[in-house]
């Protein structure tokens, strides 16, 4: 099925860190844009048609999906990972009912390797998508600086800041991920797209030290050896994708703008 420029793009999770950026890039295409949130009072916004729906409950989805050309799925609930699987099934059912041409999903580099509950669920979502019979594209990205920042904040109040030792990370700007997602959505479904990772790979301890400096803190970073299989995989670089360092905005760029 070919791209229908007159039909809307639907962005899910459109109030989130990534979704907000996807919305911005989707609007810039000049296409009609729809956005989905659980909020009963969505943001007031003349350029976007907002819908209220909940993927976990499976409610309110049909009005948003009906007539959409492509869906860029950024909705996720990492605090309740178990919700994401029924939510994903509801996404696919709604897309099938509506005859959506292309479902574009955001996933995470390392979901196929790292034994964390949220990552396992993301991987299962990828498998459901691949078996759905829908036109689909899946993009795996590395961590957003906002996520790392959010993780560092509570740790930064401790006298020393504990961080996993010898663990490389490769943060990528969500605006760059958003641009890639929108470009993918406008094209034909490609299945698994090449990863998108940030421009530099640095030890997590190094990022934490830069974060402390940016906040004017002299507290030290305490390297902590993470035990077990997950710790070993993290040290081996399971969160990184060095062959796909296509992002341009660095951690230091983020810190300079944020702090
Ligand atoms: N953060 C990272 O470093 C990173 C890296 C790579 C990939 N990703 C992936 O990128 C996606 C977005 O991440 P993010 O950091 O932007 O997350 P986020 O800021 O937490 O945004 C997620 C959005 O999902 C919506 N949502 C949650 N549960 C929902 C439900 N049951 N029904 C409908 N909407 C629901 C929420 O919107 P409302 O509250 O308005 O409903 C929320 O704004 C996720 O799939 C994540 O796995 C994230």
Automatic annotation (TrEMBL):
<dbReference type="InterPro" id="IPR051604">
    <property type="entry name" value="Ergot_Alk_Oxidoreductase"/>
</dbReference>
<feature type="domain" description="NAD(P)-binding">
    <location>
        <begin position="13"/>
        <end position="144"/>
    </location>
</feature>
<dbReference type="InterPro" id="IPR016040">
    <property type="entry name" value="NAD(P)-bd_dom"/>
</dbReference>
<protein>
    <submittedName>
        <fullName>Uncharacterized protein YbjT (DUF2867 family)</fullName>
    </submittedName>
</protein>
<dbReference type="InterPro" id="IPR036291">
    <property type="entry name" value="NAD(P)-bd_dom_sf"/>
</dbReference>
<dbReference type="Pfam" id="PF13460">
    <property type="entry name" value="NAD_binding_10"/>
</dbReference>
